[in-house]
Specification:
Elements: H1 80-88, H2 95-102, H3 109-124, E1 127-137, H4 166-178, E2 183-188, H5 195-211, E3 216-220, H6 226-235, E4 239-241, H7 248-254, H8 260-272, E5 276-278, E6 281-283, H9 289-301, E7 306-311, H10 328-341, E8 346-349, H11 353-357, H12 361-364, E9 370-372, H13 384-393, E10 397-398, H14 399-404
Parallel strand pairs: 1-2, 1-9, 1-10, 2-3, 3-4, 4-5, 6-7, 7-8, 8-9
Helix pairs in contact: 1-3, 2-9, 2-10, 3-10, 4-5, 5-6, 9-10
Bound molecules: iron/sulfur cluster.
Iron/sulfur cluster (SF4) binds next to loops.
Length: about 400
């Protein structure tokens, strides 16, 4: 029940990592991009790392897409500046605006993004937040999320290991800190973490807080109740990620082993504990425009402070293998729609951004103000140098740099 960077292409097993072209010093269990991902030390890996697991007989979700590639229907020349000004004046964009954005004419893309940037600039200036994660437990998940290679129902070979030790989590934080990541996210596969696992995460969080007090800590541990959320809050975890992933009415097409309501209850527990809720989507699952508008409004209602936008990478071995419904322009319109509807929130470009936005990726930062750096849960993203270069060349500044200047 973790962030949907699970949608990425699996990497080789941790016991046989691919050597980088130019060997660089690495911490144990840290990938090229600095995340403790596939190269978790063998001792920390429970068993069957990287082995393909048999897909269990299971009815599973019905993954027929509701939508094929949509056609723009909003006439060109729409007044996107006017919409942005209206949002900035305090009138929230609504469902009809969302649909107009998603169906906007391709000729309008620069005006649409310029309006999104007006809003972004008001709330976030030119700063970009950097986030890094540790895949602290991988694979063997009994849930049947159709996009996820870590499900036991998927046949994709992914690293499989139980929760890494506390020291590995702390070292991952040191590495993230060295990369100027403002937020370090500790992610576990699985429906929910045990109390023992939550205690280990909390203990690591205390050490990280003491050593790197400026680092914001996020946990992503599946479903959670009030008691466990309070343990995390007491340890200094400030944010908890639990994506709604898709619209309530589309949710059961993607997963059958838990409900949309389960997800919402977790977000509510997190908020009750005083932790900032982080919740976002995976687009490209087969949802239609109404679903996307609905999920944006849902995230507004749920008061998600931070909204990761993931773009499906359809993996072999999952029910969504071969599904390519997104185009780069479509992705831009989705990111813009989230900015118009959630003007002050942290909108983050997350898993699949490289593949799905392609050469348009830098443009998306005119609407989004946050990125996951480098690698995702089970695949490598673009290098951190490339991300840094992209941010610099756009004239944006990493948030810590902005604070320093
Ligand atoms: S299958 Fe398990 S690990 Fe994958 S997204 Fe669903 S809950 Fe998370």
């Amino acid at each position: 029940m973790t962030t949907p960077q699970h949608t990425q292409t699996p990497l080789p097993a941790p016991t046989a990592p691919t050597a980088p072209a130019t060997p660089a010093p690495r911490l144990p269990g840290i990938t090229r991009n600095g995340r403790p991902l596939t190269s978790i030390p063998t001792a920390a890996v429970a068993s069957t790392a990287g082995a393909a697991h048999p897909r269990r007989p299971h009815e599973g979700p019905s993954v027929e897409p509701r939508a094929q590639r949509p056609t723009p229907t909003t006439p060109p020349g729409h007044d996107w500046t006017g919409l942005a000004e209206r949002v900035l004046a305090g009138t929230p964009a609504g469902r009809d605006d969302a649909l107009r954005i998603l169906r906007s004419h391709d000729d309008d893309i620069l005006e649409l993004m310029a309006g999104a940037y007006r809003i972004r600039r008001r709330f976030h200036g030119r700063s970009v937040k950097l986030n890094m994660l540790i895949n602290a437990q991988s694979g063997r998940c009994a849930e049947d999320c159709a996009y996820c290679s870590q499900s036991i129902y998927a046949t994709a070979p992914v690293p499989e290991y139980q929760l890494v030790d506390e020291q590995t989590i702390v070292e991952g934080a040191r590495h993230a800190h060295a990369q100027q990541a403002g937020t370090y996210c500790m992610v576990m596969s699985g429906r929910r973490a045990s109390r023992r696992d939550v205690d280990r995460i909390a203990s690591a969080a205390r050490r990280i807080r003491e050593e790197m007090p400026e680092m914001k800590l996020c946990a992503c541990l599946g479903l959670i109740d009030d008691a466990k959320a309070e343990v995390l809050a007491d340890s200094g975890v400030e944010r908890f990620n639990h994506n709604v992933n898709t619209a309530p009415r589309y949710h059961d097409r993607i997963v059958t082993t838990h409900t949309y309501r389960d997800r919402v209850e977790t977000i509510e527990s997190v908020r009750r504990a005083g932790i900032s809720p982080c919740s976002g989507i995976i687009c490209g699952l087969g949802e239609d425009d109404d679903d996307l508008a609905e999920v944006a409004l849902e995230l507004r209602r749920l008061e998600a402070d931070s909204v990761p936008i993931n773009f499906l990478i359809p993996q072999e071995g999952t029910p969504l293998a071969g599904r390519r419904l997104l185009t780069p322009l479509r992705c831009l319109k989705i990111v813009a729609m989230f900015r118009y509807l959630l003007p002050g929130r942290e909108i983050r470009l997350a898993g699949g951004r490289e593949l799905n936005l392609g050469q348009l990726q830098p443009l998306a930062l005119f609407a989004a103000n946050s990125v996951f750096l480098g690698d995702y849960l089970t695949s490598e993203g673009q290098t951190m140098d490339a991300d840094r270069q992209m941010i610099d060349e756009l004239g944006f500044v990493v948030e810590q740099d902005a604070h320093a200047s």
